[in-house]
Amino acid sequence: MCENTATTEVSHGHDPTAARIYGLALVAGVLLILFGDTSPVEASGFVSPFLVMFEQRR
After folding, report:
1. DSSP strand E in 8-48: where?
2. How far is the C-alpha of 5 from the C-alpha of 11, rounded, in Å?
3. What's the rounded Cα separation, in Å, for the pair 44 and 57?
4. pLDDT digit string (tens) for 12-37?
5. What sections of the protein cross the membrane (predicted)?
6. 9 backbone φψ class: left, alpha, beta (φ>0; ψ -120 to 50)
7. Is residue 10 exposed (0-12), middle (13-18) or buried (19+ Cβ within 10 Å)?
8. What are the extents of the domains in the chain?
9. Which element (helix H / strand E) includes 20?
């Protein structure tokens, strides 16, 4: 008999942690644009590495 302790992701696209991370990244980008005198391209260049690191850890 094989005991499989791996968990499967069957959340049907509703991952609360991912939603929080992406929401916070969106807010951070908007705050950078509004208060940091950065362009949208610069803000996305700053925020996107954090999202990539988050996705690689999953």
Report:
1. none
2. 18
3. 20
4. 667 888 888 889 999 999 999 999 88
5. 21-54
6. beta
7. exposed
8. 16-56
9. helix 16-35
